[in-house]
Design brief:
Length: 310
């Protein structure tokens, strides 16, 4: 699950992102009795950073991401999402749902409804770090939004920021855009809805995470429209280690340096190693075994901490 998409009987591969592969039922196939409009989203073990897919992948990552996504979809069950109606959210659902997931991808696949996806990455930042910190040092802004002076790397922002991006094609860089540009792309009503839903979901998820001793520093959401109902629906992955920055809350409160404060549960380990060992030209270097193992361990630890009853 780290390179080319699988050939799955009864399903036709239609798209691959940096991590996920998307399939639709093969017409007239007896191998896939999935209803019309059903899609299969398969999370691979691929890992990406700086818009590149790296090698090797992180063993077991696809199952960890899928399990965490399903846990969040279940926890936020009042937020409309793209899961198939009979999907087994926590692995204990109906025989029908289990039967529709091909055995080749069991544990790493979600059955979902086909949606008309918005071409917007709905990023929410609750803390300043990463590219936001670099911009703030230069101009006192994050994605063009002015912020108070005196902030340090890793500080909590006065309020969460909605900092959208335009989704790029595979291999290209996502483009940070203003809210006004979102309005131009999707219209004022949908832009308002995307911003409102993103900020609301982030606030709830951040509070839940903190109750488990984890800080949700930032995240990105994707949404689509249900063609039948017109409803805006939460889609793709949600609040995973790949789509979010998670930090240990105690380390953030007690740490004396940015490295100590931002003890990461996500792929920041990969980003940091790559930044120190690659000039972002040509092909990225192979990840060392030690980096792969540490990253896999942090993904597992986050899943255990988030999904364990506080």
């Amino acid at each position: 699950m780290t390179s080319t998409p699988l050939d799955i009987p009864g399903w036709t591969h239609v798209y691959s992102g940096k991590v996920r592969d998307l399939y639709r039922p093969t017409p007239a196939s007896t191998d896939s009795p999935a209803p019309e409009g059903t899609m299969l989203v398969v999370a691979s073990d691929r890992v990406s950073a700086f818009d590149y897919v790296l090698s090797p992948g992180i063993p077991g990552k696809g199952e960890l991401l899928t399990t965490l996504s399903l846990w969040w979809f279940d926890t936020l069950d009042d937020v409309p999402n793209h899961l198939h109606a009979s999907h087994a959210l926590l692995g204990t659902g109906t025989d029908e749902a289990r039967a529709l997931v091909p055995p080749e991808v069991a544990g790493r696949a979600m059955l979902v409804r086909a949606l008309d996806m918005f071409p917007i990455e709905c990023v929410v930042r609750g803390y300043i770090t990463g590219t936001g910190w670099l911009e703030y040092q230069e101009s006192g802004t994050v994605c063009g939004i002015p912020l108070p002076s005196g902030l340090s790397n890793g500080d909590r922002l006065p309020e969460p920021l909605f900092t959208p991006a335009f989704k790029a094609e595979l291999g290209d860089h996502d483009e940070n855009i203003t809210f006004e540009r979102v309005v131009e792309i999707v219209g004022a009503d949908d832009a308002d809805a995307l911003r409102s839903m993103s900020l609301s979901i982030y606030a709830r998820a951040a509070a839940i995470s903190e109750s488990h001793g984890v800080i949700l520093a930032d995240t990105k959401f994707e949404f689509g429209r249900d063609a039948a109902s017109g409803e805006i629906v939460l889609a793709d992955e949600v609040l995973t280690s790949d789509s979010s920055r998670y930090w240990d809350a105690r380390a953030w409160h007690d740490g004396g340096s940015p490295t100590e404060r931002m003890a990461s549960f996500d792929k920041q380990i990969v980003r940091d190693w790559l930044a120190a060992n690659w000039d972002k030209t040509g092909t990225p270097p192979e990840l060392p075994d030690e980096i792969v193992e540490r990253t896999a361990a942090r993904y597992r630890e986050l899943l255990e901490r988030i999904t364990t009853t506080a």
